[in-house]
């Protein structure tokens, strides 16, 4: 069994005395889709924020690709291959779709500003390569028709896809999706599910996602982790979790 | 009629000079949310450094190059030493910090370069020329041309280069920018460096216009109504705001001055700014903050 891509060990986090996460431990295997579920306030988003360095855990550690971190910074996490999307659409509203996606590649720039300004040296190959990758991801997520539109003018469902494209274009090995289907109708949810599955299957990206719609979660994920009041109450395959009495009590309501 | 046109054109061209100062504010405010009160001191510092080097007998371009390095280094140093340790503090704290920086810059400049008034000659002839029956100052035309080139260069920088895209990304959503690995602090340094460059341009033109003296820092006070009218986050707004203030000032001076006993231009811009605050608080090109209800 290869080493898990992400290991959380006794991660705790509190905000002014309120325990958001309480000694939480679980593993995410390489190449899987792992869903985090739990009622509002269970600590799901806090957990994503710890993994990509927005918050710092009070105790415990995060092991990513075999490297142990007590504190990681968001930009550093991105450079190490952690991509993420946001629950609210945190897009660059005034930029076009292409520029939003291109921004996701900026950390891979090697050419200096001078080379870039005059289009010489490393910049020529790099610019070609960047444009190719942006086009590729835009085509993959069916955004080609909207490529030059300013993001703020696009419908919500498409904006969500731009967010995904921006996170994906830099080739992350771990992708964190914070409620990628929040506020979507059934058709849009299906479409997004398809994109997530394709990303996982054809790019091999490991995905950790937060989702509330149980039918989506059950259809999408290989692995489900259930949180309740910052504690882990379930961890296993979707079928295991569905049968787990603690989970049913905490989240799914009483058994039928 | 031709007198009116002459007044208007003169005012518009003078307004461009205000725009030059306002652009420096916009750059920093847009990228990092800091209202940099030290912009005026940076303008002074640029003019004073340049003129001191020239007085020492340095060649024009060499002096310009050294001054440019000094200004970019100064901008970067302010970001690194003063603002970075204050990151995530309330805006008023950052503003007060830049106020402090402005005193430090002025004090040090005075110690190093003295407080006497210098004349600055850029080699631009300031005799009026006639265009279509209207007398126009050559110096003002040159200043407007410089501002035009600067604005085009900045808009290419912001729209076409990766650094520019990254800067606009930060302005829209810093958290998301971090999540894709954009290094905020590096980019803030770049923006402060660019602000140093813009204050060099403004410093040279204002210094040539008014003489290099400590009163030069007061151009900040003229830039403020420009920013209020144009909006704090738009370079286009800074230009339009400058034109409105410039034209308003000179037209009001001529037509209201005789009624009110003169010196209308010292306060007219602020009245305009107050009117804009009442009608359109975000300015012409600024964005109204969206608040959750």
Automatic annotation (TrEMBL), chain A:
By its UniProt entry, which Gene3D superfamilies does this protein fall under?
Answer: P-loop containing nucleotide triphosphate hydrolases
Q: Where is the ABC transporter domain?
A: 6-254
Keyword flag ATP-binding: yes
> Is Nucleotide-binding a UniProt keyword of this protein?
yes
Name this polypeptide is given: ABC transporter ATP-binding protein
- What is the documented function of this protein? Involved in beta-(1-->2)glucan export. Transmembrane domains (TMD) form a pore in the inner membrane and the ATP-binding domain (NBD) is responsible for energy generation.
One GO cellular component this record assigns the protein to is: plasma membrane
Q: Which residues form a coiled coil?
A: none
Q: Which UniProt keywords apply?
A: ATP-binding, Nucleotide-binding, Transport
One GO MF term = ATP hydrolysis activity
Database matches in CDD domains: ABC_Mj1267_LivG_branched
PROSITE patterns according to UniProt: ABC_TRANSPORTER_2 (PS50893)
Source species, please? Answer: Bradyrhizobium uaiense
TrEMBL record, chain B:
Lineage, top-rank taxon, reads: Bacteria
Localization terms from the record: Cell membrane
Show the GO MF annotations: transmembrane transporter activity
CDD domains per the UniProt record, alphabetical? TM_PBP1_LivH_like
Q: Write out the transmembrane intervals.
A: 12-29, 60-82, 94-117, 137-158, 187-206, 226-247, 254-279
Membrane-related topology note: Multi-pass membrane protein
Q: Which GO terms describe its biological process?
A: amino acid transport
Query: Is the keyword Cytoplasm assigned to this protein?
Result: no
Q: What is its main location?
A: membrane
Name the InterPro entries for this protein: ABC_transp_permease (IPR001851), BCAA_transport_permease (IPR052157)
Q: Which UniProt keywords apply?
A: Amino-acid transport, Cell membrane, Membrane, Transmembrane, Transmembrane helix, Transport
Q: Name one GO cellular component term.
A: plasma membrane
Assigned protein family: Belongs to the binding-protein-dependent transport system permease family. LivHM subfamily.
Matching PANTHER family: ABC TRANSPORTER PERMEASE PROTEIN (PTHR11795:SF451), BRANCHED-CHAIN AMINO ACID TRANSPORT SYSTEM PERMEASE PROTEIN LIVH (PTHR11795)
Full protein name: Branched-chain amino acid ABC transporter permease
């Amino acid at each position: 069994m290869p080493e898990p891509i992400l290991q959380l060990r006794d991660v705790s986090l509190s905000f002014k005395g309120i325990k958001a996460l309480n000694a939480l431990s679980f593993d995410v295997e390489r190449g899987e889709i792992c869903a985090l579920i739990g009622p509002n306030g269970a600590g799901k988003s806090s957990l994503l924020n710890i993994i990509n360095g927005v918050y710092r855990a009070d105790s415990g550690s995060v092991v990513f690709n075999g490297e142990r971190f007590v504190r990681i910074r968001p930009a550093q996490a991105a450079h190490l291959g952690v991509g993420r999307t946001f629950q609210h659409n945190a897009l660059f509203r005034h930029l076009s779709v292409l520029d939003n996606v291109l921004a996701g590649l900026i950390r891979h720039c090697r050419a200096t500003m001078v080379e870039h300004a005059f289009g010489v040296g490393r910049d020529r190959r790099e610019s070609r390569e960047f444009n190719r990758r942006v086009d590729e991801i835009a085509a993959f997520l069916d955004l080609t028709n909207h490529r030059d539109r300013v993001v703020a003018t696009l419908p919500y469902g498409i904006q969500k896809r731009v967010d995904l494209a921006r996170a994906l274009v830099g080739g992350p090995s771990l992708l964190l999706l914070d409620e990628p289907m929040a506020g979507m109708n059934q058709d849009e949810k299906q479409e997004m599910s398809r994109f997530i599955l394709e990303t996982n299957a054809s790019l091999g990206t490991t995905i950790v996602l937060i989702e509330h719609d149980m039918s989506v979660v059950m259809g999408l994920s290989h692995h489900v982790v259930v949180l309740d009041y910052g504690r882990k109450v379930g961890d296993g395959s979707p079928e295991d979790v569905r049968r787990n009495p603690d989970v049913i009590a905490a989240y799914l309501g009483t058994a039928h | 009629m031709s007198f009116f046109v002459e007044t208007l054109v003169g005012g518009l061209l003078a307004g461009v000079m205000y725009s030059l100062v306002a652009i420096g504010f916009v750059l920093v405010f847009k990228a990092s949310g800091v209202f940099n009160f030290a912009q005026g001191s940076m303008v002074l510092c640029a003019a004073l450094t340049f003129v001191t080097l020239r007085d020492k007998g340095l060649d024009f371009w060499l002096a310009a190059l050294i001054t440019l390095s000094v200004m970019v280094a100064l901008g970067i140093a302010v970001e690194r030493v003063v603002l970075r340790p204050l990151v995530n503090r309330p805006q008023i704290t950052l503003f007060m910090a830049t106020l402090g920086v402005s005193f430090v810059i002025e004090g040090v400049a005075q110690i190093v370069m003295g407080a006497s008034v210098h004349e600055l000659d850029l080699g631009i002839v300031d005799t009026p020329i006639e265009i279509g029956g209207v007398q126009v100052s050559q110096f003002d035309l040159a200043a407007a041309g410089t501002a035009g080139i600067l604005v085009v260069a900045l808009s290419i920088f912001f729209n076409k280069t990766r650094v520019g895209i990254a800067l606009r990304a930060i302005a829209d959503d810093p958290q998301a920018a971090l999540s894709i690995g954009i290094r905020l602090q590096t980019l803030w340094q770049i923006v402060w460096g660019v602000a140093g460059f813009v204050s060099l341009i403004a410093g040279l033109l204002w210094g040539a216009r008014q003489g290099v003296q400590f009163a030069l820092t007061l151009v900040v006070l003229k830039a403020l109504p420009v920013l209020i009218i144009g909006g704090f986050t738009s370079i286009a707004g800074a230009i339009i705001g400058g034109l409105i203030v410039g034209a308003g000032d000179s037209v009001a001076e001529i037509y209201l001055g005789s009624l009110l006993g003169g010196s209308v231009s010292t306060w007219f811009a602020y009245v305009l700014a107050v009117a804009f605050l009442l009608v359109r608080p975000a300015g012409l090109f600024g964005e109204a903050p969206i608040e959750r209800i």
